[in-house]
Amino acid sequence: MNSATAEGDDAGNVPRPRVGGVVAPGVIAPGALRAVTSVTHLGPISCPASDTSADGRTVCSNTAAYAFNSDAPDIVYALKVQAPAAHCAPVVYSVIVGNRTSVLSSRALNGGESQFIELGSGWSRGRHQVRIGAMAQSGQGCNTRGLNSWSVDVSTAIVPR
Questions:
Q1: Beta strands in 17-113 (DSSP E)
Q2: Which domain holds residue 102?
Q3: DSSP letter (8 states) at residue 29
């Protein structure tokens, strides 16, 4: 496993309390978060026109699979999701965790912005898969008639206790 210090939104900020399963930018102390994987680019993922509701909200029915390895069940993991710089409109990413019914979401991210989403602990040793989805609103950026496609850059990180 290759380890590196995660960079991005958490640099230079002081710890703040968590809200739900989302680790918002600035929650983790500088240098405390350790990235355990290199960045994986997922996409483009296409969204059928039927995924856009009459009020302009698109919840893309197509998702992307992302796999990560757990070293032990007592380790707390997080995903760093980043909207690629080429994204021309904000997107909200959702993480669907295995057979669980829980869905964790990011805030709306513009191109180049990132957020850590905590997956928690309890992951047995070995390979695990989550699904990542996307939502967007028409009228924001280039989303004139709904979200046609999306991409995401993802990496796995260990959250200090």
A1: 22-23, 34-35, 40-46, 57-59, 64-70, 76-82, 92-97, 103-105
A2: 4-159
A3: P
Q: What CATH number is attached to the domain comprising 118?
A: 2.60.120
Intra-chain end-to-end CA distance of the chain, in Å? 20
pLDDT at res. 122? 93
Give the total number of structural domains in the chain.
Answer: 1
- Rounded to whole angstroms, the Cα distance separating 11 from 6 reads 9
Positions of the chain with pLDDT lower than 50, given as ranges: 1-30
pLDDT given for residue 128 in this prediction = 94
Give the 3-state secondary structure of 104-134: EECCCECCCCEEEEEEECCCCCEEEEEEEEE
DSSP bridge partners of 58:
52, 136
Phi (first) and psi of residue 130, to 5 degrees: -125, 165
Give the Cα separation of 126 and 117 in Å (integer). Answer: 20
The kind and range of the H/E element at 159 are strand 149-159
